[in-house]
Amino acid sequence: MKGALAVLAALAVLLGSPLATAVLVASVGTPAMAEEHRTLFCEGTLPVTGDWRPPYETAYTQTSQFGQRFHPIHQEWRLHAGVDLVSQPAGAPVVAAAAGTVTAAGWTGGGGNTVSIDHGGGTSSRYLHLAHPSDLSVGDRVHIGQRVGTEGSTGDSTGSHLHFEIHQDGQPIDPVPFMLERGATLNGVAVAPSPPPGEEPLPPWVPELPEDGEGGIGFELPAPGEPRQDSLHNPSLPIPSGIQELYEQAGSQYAIPWTLLAGIGMAETAHGANTGTSSAGARGLMQFMPATFAAYGVDGDGDGLADIDNDADSVHSAANYLTASGVHRGEEGVRDALFAYNHADWYVNDVLYYAQQYGGGLVLGDPLHCDGQGGNPDLPPVSSERVAQMLAFAAGQEGDSYILGAGGPDAWDCSSLTQTAMAQIGITAPRTAQAQRDWLAMGNGFRVPLDQAQPGDLFFFDSYLGPHTIGHVGFVWDPATHTSIEAANPAKGVGFFSYEHALDNNIFEIWRLGNIDDNPKAPS
């Protein structure tokens, strides 16, 4: 752990607790004195953005740990050189935990059907007891998430499972802390498929993410459902070139597919063919009610005015309103944002149908949908011992690089650092800043005023995704001086900085973790 002694001394002072060094540097935290509550999970599966991932896409359980154990078949004490994982349901596909080169693929006696992959730098992974011989051959290159076999029970095995090993310089090491350091916690949570090489997760209409963005997370626009209404008899029409240019400009600025704006433009006015004031009083290309435009209207053409009847202003204001309504928060967030635009289920499906006809696309956001509300102020706060362990990990990364999409162990972006720090104390959080805030708000934590902030609280503010979407997260280190520990940006990297510059942002919030755990322990 980088700079461990200085970190421990500072934590003891900040937390006002004489915590022992041995407690803080232990790989397993001291059980909390207060009652632990089970982590609430968001809808959907966690995305993969780093260089490592769990060897399943499905949920799974760990049934045996690394270390000496009494062998159930040979009836003697032996080193169990990995961990045993069982997919839910059993017999799921097994995938490569990282990219590399196959060094073995075949029968290994006690290991049954086995695949070994060299990842470079002296690191390799092994996958034992696979159900069938692998289609891979020695020398094959595999990408992260590529299928290497199916969970089975070949060799010396008492039931269907995957024996998963990590070797460093030829010696087996415990896979659990190794994967934890790389943001790929073996916690049993389902993880989404990894895109093959060349299939970048970024949409083509985003020419370049800001360097201080988060991971290039994205998800496809949801497919239209039922019921539909106008789209059943009004086909999608060609888009005038000038109008399409406005859709594309606004889509790029607000990180949503331009086709979604085109879907609204088609549903509302057939791209400007019918811009008369509606019976309800809606006006302009994207049919805004004057009161809504007064709250969300923006200057889209840079003339210094936000005009409800100006096409550029109307399109950019629609993108702004969708963003404020949660369009980046998973597929359900897209549907919720469209429903906010026009309160009808058929309208939501009409717009999605038209968007699909114009080419669909990827929303830049977290695929998880966290139904954030007001948090749970009745939760006991996360204990001082667990805060110390979490902050010790974050502070231990001081000096590491900030790289967009990195998930450790030596480079991070803002949300991968906080996500991995929380994983140190058995808590699985979403990947992006906005989703982490919504995950806390759904009942995993509670919001606190600025003047009541404590070390270990998480602060959130808007940044590269605009004023209505959270784009940055970090940990409060010293609330008295507004000092943070965070992955700040590419120029600063990971370190101790200040969050004072963000206090006047459109969004600035501080949230406290509850005393939650993926697998709660009884109070001691």
- Outline type: globular
Characterize the biggest β-sheet: 8 strands, antiparallel
Low-confidence segments, given as residue ranges, are 17-32
Number of helices, where a helix is a run of at least 4 consecutive DSSP H or I residues: 12
Strand tally: 24
Helicity, as a percent range: 25-40%
Mean pLDDT: 89
Radius of gyration over all CA atoms, rounded: 25 Å
Instruction: Quote the beta fraction.
Output: 15-25%
Short description:
The protein has about 525 residues and is an alpha+beta fold. It has helices at about 5-15, 20-25, 175-180, 240-255, 260-270, 290-295, 310-325, 330-340, 345-355, 385-395, 415-425, 435-445; strands at about 35-40, 60-65, 65-70, 75-80, 85-90, 95, 100-105, 115-120, 125-130, 140, 145-150, 160-170, 170-175, 220, 360-365, 400, 410, 445-450, 460, 470-480, 485-490, 495-500, 510-515, 515. Helix 1 (about 5-15) runs antiparallel to helix 10 (about 385-395) and helix 4 (about 240-255) packs parallel to helix 7 (about 310-325).
